[in-house]
Design a protein that fits this description.
This protein is 36% helix and 15% strand. The chain contains four helices and four strands; from the N terminus they run H-E-H-E-H-H-E-E. The strands form two sheets. A two-stranded parallel sheet has the order 1-2. A two-stranded antiparallel ribbon has the order 3-4. It starts with a helix and ends with a strand. Helix 2 links the parallel strand 1 and strand 2. Helix 1 runs parallel beside helix 2.
Amino acid sequence: MQAARQFTWTLTERMGQVRYLIRDRAGQFTDAFDAVFAAEGIKVLRSAPQCPRMNAYAERVVRTIRAECTDRMLIMSQRHLQRVLAEYIEHYNTGRAHRALNLRAPADDPGIIPFPAHRIRRTPVLGGLINEYEAVA
């Protein structure tokens, strides 16, 4: 329960934006844990018991962020971590190639054939930790 209180303290400046907390059905989460969030106006949603793989998707996202971003950087503070994660999530949702999209990025123009390109422009993301490439016309 103390962990829940400490977590809500970190959300004070974004309390109006946070409406839901999604958690699994593990035994360490008690009714008192949920009550801390309910007191702050946050609705606690438990993962469905019929969906045992639901938690696996969330863990996969965390693993991807760690492997591609945070494990390769020295994070200096909470503010630094928030900036790094915001930039990485923007990259992940717009500029990163996805297998489900045939290795195209979600923000790619569907009318452009990605390769072969005569000239390619490289844009460093996160200080060069990640690079995005695009064809130059």
